Amino acid sequence: SSCDPALRPIIRRRARSLPTSPERRKRAAVQCQVPGCQNRMNRVRFADALGLELTEVKVFQTGEDPSIPLHVLSRLSINSDLWYSSSDLEFTMQCLVPDFQQPADCMDFSSRLQEQQVCLERVTSSDLGLSGTIQVRNVAFEKQVSVRYTFNQWKSLHEVCAHWHSSIPEKNGQGQVDVFTFFLPVPPFLLQLCSVVQFAARYQVNGREYWDNNRGKNYTLTCRTHPLKMPRECEESWIHFI
């Protein structure tokens, strides 16, 4: 009565090893020396899951160099440079560096929050993008916090929503502050020297809109070269990291 097709059993076929050449069979054959074994020949071969040969003989002609992949050569070169370096391994990497002091570390952070109703707390950069926290005064329960940013001096812009994280009391004890977190994805091709990312925080509540744009200058991060040092005992970990 069912319209489903009849189920058929799955046929499992075992892979069969490929025949070996007479010469290879002759080299791999071992004659049993145990009495009563009737001169049985034991053969040893290496094969993959499909029964195919795992070994292959490559004959190089005179003057023909073997081809080494570029990624292997680069790792050998890096390993050589690190080996002959000083006691500490030194290298540089490009990352976005804030052109401003972290607002939470400023003495006027509380007054700015009282004045603007919203204030960036802190921002950090990684190879994936920018992560940060924003504090807003709890004017009403329904609220929306977002971050507007640009990569090309506001010729085009993007906006992402921030998400509620926690609630804390204000330092003056007069009210409550909500903490929101955000993440700005930064494409890897933008991580070039002198590349700039600008953003501002937006707070919408009770039909009104508040901004924190670093007092009209916007929050700016510039891609710069950052030196890093690593102890020599971490050399092997650094090679695996590459």
TrEMBL record:
<feature type="domain" description="CBM21">
    <location>
        <begin position="110"/>
        <end position="222"/>
    </location>
</feature>
<dbReference type="InterPro" id="IPR038175">
    <property type="entry name" value="CBM21_dom_sf"/>
</dbReference>
<protein>
    <submittedName>
        <fullName>Protein phosphatase 1 regulatory subunit 3D</fullName>
    </submittedName>
</protein>
<dbReference type="Pfam" id="PF03370">
    <property type="entry name" value="CBM_21"/>
</dbReference>
<dbReference type="GO" id="GO:0005979">
    <property type="term" value="P:regulation of glycogen biosynthetic process"/>
</dbReference>
<dbReference type="GO" id="GO:2001069">
    <property type="term" value="F:glycogen binding"/>
</dbReference>
<dbReference type="GO" id="GO:0008157">
    <property type="term" value="F:protein phosphatase 1 binding"/>
</dbReference>
<dbReference type="InterPro" id="IPR005036">
    <property type="entry name" value="CBM21_dom"/>
</dbReference>
<dbReference type="GO" id="GO:0000164">
    <property type="term" value="C:protein phosphatase type 1 complex"/>
</dbReference>
<dbReference type="InterPro" id="IPR050782">
    <property type="entry name" value="PP1_regulatory_subunit_3"/>
</dbReference>
